[in-house]
Amino acid sequence: MSIIHTIIIAIALMCFSFNSTSNEIEQTDAELKSHLISKSNDFEVLISILNKTKYSGVFWIKDRILNARSSNNTDAVWAKSPKLDEFVNKAIGFGFGSLLLGEDANGNWTISTGQEVIFLDGAPSRGAAKTKTIKKSYWYGNQPKASTCTPEIVEKAFEGKCYISLLPNWFLFKHWFTYEPAS
Fold it and tell me: Which of 110, 131, 155 is at the close of a domain?
C-alpha cells in the first residue's frame, strides 16, 4: 500500500505542477534564490520541528492534505493523520499554503519548488513533443554529490542532476530527464 500511496502523490504533484513557493508555474533561478533569502530561516525552523519527530517527509496542502512519511533504509510508510500541529501552525504562520519536504539517508532536506517543462520539438497538443522536465528543489545540508549547474549541462544532457550554491548549507538542486515519444 505504501508504494501505491507514493505513486498517487507523485502523480498528483505532476498534474497540479505543485509549487511550494508561489502560485507561478515556473520561476527563474534568480527568483528562487530571492525567495530562499527571505524564507531560509522559516524553512530551517520547520526542518528543526521535523527533526524532532519520526518523520522524514511531509506532503501538506493547507486545509486539505497532511501526509507524513517515516522510513528506514528499506521501506517508507505514509501516515495519513500524523501529529504535526506545531509544523502546520508554524507553516501557516510563515505564510505557506503548501509544502513538500523530504529527508535523505544523509540528513539532507529537500523542499520542492516545482518543475519546468521545456518543449524541444514536436506538437505538444498531440502528445508527440520531445520534452525536457526539470524538477527544482531547495536542498538544505551538505553539498549535493552532483555537478555545478550550467545552461550547457542541462541543455545537452539527456538526463542528469546538478546544483547551484545559494546560501551557506542551501542549494538549488535540479534533476532533469528528457522524454522522446515513440515514433
Answer: 110
Q: What is the pLDDT of residues 15-58, one digit of tens each?
A: 333 334 443 446 788 999 999 999 999 999 999 999 999 899 99
- CA–CA separation, 5 and 112 (whole Å): 18
Please state, in angstroms and rounded to a whole number, the distance separating the CA atoms of residues 33 and 136. 12
In this structure, the answer to whether residues 93 and 8 fall within a common structural domain is yes
Backbone angles phi, psi at 88, to 5 degrees: -60, -45
Instruction: Report pTM.
Output: 0.78
Helix locations, the chain, DSSP H:
2-16, 29-51, 85-93, 151-156
- How many CB atoms lie under 10 A from the CB of residue 182? 4
Q: Please, which residues have CB within 8 angstroms of residue 76's CB and are 6 or more apart in sequence?
A: 2, 6, 56, 57, 69, 70
Distance CA 108, CA 87 (A): 18
pLDDT of the residue at 129: 79
Report d(CA 130, CA 117) in Å as an integer: 10
Counting DSSP H helices and E strands in the chain, the numbers are 4, 9
State which of 110, 144, 160 marks the end of a domain: 110
Query: By C-alpha distance, which of 42, 62, 59 is closest to 5?
Result: 59
Q: What are phi and psi of 147, to 5 degrees?
A: -75, 160
Number of structural domains in the chain? 2
